[in-house]
Design goal:
Layout lengths: L1 H7 L3 E6 L4 E9 L5 E10 L7 E10 L4 E6 L5 H4 L21
Antiparallel strand pairs: 1-2, 1-5, 2-3, 3-4
Length: 102
Amino acid sequence: MASTLSELTNKSITLLTCDGRLITGTLLGYDQLQNLILKQSYEKVYSMEAPMEKVELGLFVVRGDNVAVIAEVMTATDNETGGKNEEDVRAEPIPPIVQNVI
C-alpha cells in the first residue's frame, strides 16, 4: 500500500472511513501505520431530504485503522455526468463498515 500512497502524495483523493464518512482533500503525507494527512479537505454529507452538503475540514488527520477505501479524484465531463452537478445528488448516507469477528 505504501507505494500506492507515495504515488498519490500531493494529489486530490477521496477516502471512505470505516464509520461511513466520505472525505476529499489533497494527500499531504502518511506514515507506516497508514495515518493520512489531508490539506484543503472537506466531507461530503449525503441525505435523501437535501442535496449533498460539503463541510469544510481544512487540515485533517485520519487514523490509518479508520480508512476503508482510498481513491484518486478524477474530474468528470458533462457528458459523463449527464449534465448534473455533484451538489444536486441525493443519496442514503453510507452505513458504517464493520468487521464480523467469529
